[in-house]
Amino acid sequence: MDTDPATPHWVLGASVSLDSALLNAANGAVSFGVADGGVFHVFASDPNSAFTPGTSFTLTVILADTSVATVSTTIP
User: Fold this and answer.
1) Whole-prediction pTM value?
2) How many Å apart are CA 45 and CA 63, to the nearest integer?
3) 73 — phi, psi (to 5°)?
């Protein structure tokens, strides 16, 4: 999954709250600032039952200073 519509992966959505509009551009790309201590939410659809128990996902964020933040989770 990523935000690049040129890849075979499906697009993630991002927003600043659970009920605000997505920050993605019309082509699926997304880039936005987050203040220190700020939060954002990532949304994904499940077109092919990707979210089945035991499935693992990793979210990688590349920050403006080129540092990388990564978090992984497994669906219970």
Assistant:
1) 0.67
2) 24
3) -150, 160
